[in-house]
Amino acid sequence: MATIFKKIQMFENITKLTSRQFLQFSVRNYRHRRALMYVPGSDERKINKIASLNADCVALDCEDGVALNKKDEARDIIRKKLEHIIPTANGDIGVRVNSIESGLCEKDLEVCLSGTHLPHTVLLPKVENSDHLKWFSDRINKFIKTDQKVNLIIYIESAKAFINLSDICKTAFTLSECNKFTPTSLVFGSDDFCASIGATRTEDSTEILYARQKLVLCAKAFHLQAIDMVYIKYKDLEGLKRQCEEGMRMGYTGKQVIHPNQIETVQESFLPALATVEWAKGLLDAFEEHQATGKGAFNYRGSMIDMPTMKQAKNIIDIVKPVKKKST
């Protein structure tokens, strides 16, 4: 934990940038979600510990983390706990509902959105087509009685979902323009995906490489966060770190977490190295100076710089800024 805070303090001075309207094309200003931590909605003891987790995003779970005979209990607990959690929450507090096809989703939404304090985010699993989003849009408008919007995190977990992924993203943004939700992220559900294609899991995950990369591709095309698969060996922090670093190199912005001892490793791994942030900050400063003199491409630290490189530098700073803001 101390390592993360030390890193953030160093970023405080590095990220004091001047205004650059010419670089406002990169990433939408969403809440940071390096670690997406699941907490069973039926377990009050674990929910009461949320404030101590320091996770960017916590999902109160109605789905996989709750037994079928505990679903009603989980909904009621979540609704009551949101009244106390939301007013003081430092991070993103969401509710993962059951899938639409399960027949349980409508009741999840009705109960969990009926309180005075709504969750910041609804996490919708097993989205496979645009009709699922149209269904969700109708229900979210029905159950939210105020003008408030919630964020939407979409789970992609099957072969059919990947075939329809571009259409899913387009539909989400089209519907969000006149409805009470804002799409923010895509999540890769690797285990359900493997089951849907009959793949056998391996240590290096080559069998899901294409899907893992395609999710990042679509997420970035629509300016969405990309949240990577679960690392199930929760005691193996070295293996977790390797997989986090691999995901970050691919373009993922965060990772699903199933145990509190994974949070620190994940959140530290999804911060760029200090030297990288210093490079990006220096590059943006140099770019501004050259723009003032009317120059286009220019040399920086021995490399020729053009606009794609500038976008990469801006993305690095965008990763750091929400973390800096959260720490203040």
From TrEMBL:
Family per similarity comment: Belongs to the HpcH/HpaI aldolase family. Citrate lyase beta subunit-like subfamily.
Classification via Pfam families: HpcH_HpaI (PF03328)
Subunit structure: Homotrimer.
Keywords of the record: Acetylation, Hydrolase, Lyase, Magnesium, Metal-binding, Mitochondrion, Transferase, Transit peptide
Residues noted as binding substrate in the record, renumbered to the chain: R96, E157
Cofactor field: Mg(2+)
Name under which the protein is recorded: Citramalyl-CoA lyase, mitochondrial
Gene Ontology MF terms: (S)-citramalyl-CoA lyase activity; hydrolase activity; malate synthase activity; metal ion binding
InterPro entries in the cross-refs: Aldolase/citrate-lyase_domain, Citramalyl-CoA_lyase, Citrate_lyase_beta/mcl1/mcl2, Pyrv/PenolPyrv_kinase-like_dom, Pyrv_kinase-like_dom_sf
Gene Ontology cellular-component terms listed: mitochondrion
Domain HpcH/HpaI aldolase/citrate lyase: 34-260
Function: Mitochondrial citramalyl-CoA lyase indirectly involved in the vitamin B12 metabolism. Converts citramalyl-CoA into acetyl-CoA and pyruvate in the C5-dicarboxylate catabolism pathway. The C5-dicarboxylate catabolism pathway is required to detoxify itaconate, a vitamin B12-poisoning metabolite. Also acts as a malate synthase in vitro, converting glyoxylate and acetyl-CoA to malate. Also displays malyl-CoA thioesterase activity. Also acts as a beta-methylmalate synthase in vitro, by mediating conversion of glyoxylate and propionyl-CoA to beta-methylmalate.
Biological source species: Psylliodes chrysocephalus
A GO BP entry: regulation of cobalamin metabolic process
Catalytic activity: (3S)-citramalyl-CoA = pyruvate + acetyl-CoA; glyoxylate + acetyl-CoA + H2O = (S)-malate + CoA + H(+); propanoyl-CoA + glyoxylate + H2O = 3-methylmalate + CoA + H(+)
Gene3D superfamilies given in the database record: Phosphoenolpyruvate-binding domains
Primary location recorded for the protein, binned into one broad class: mitochondrion
Keyword Cell membrane: no
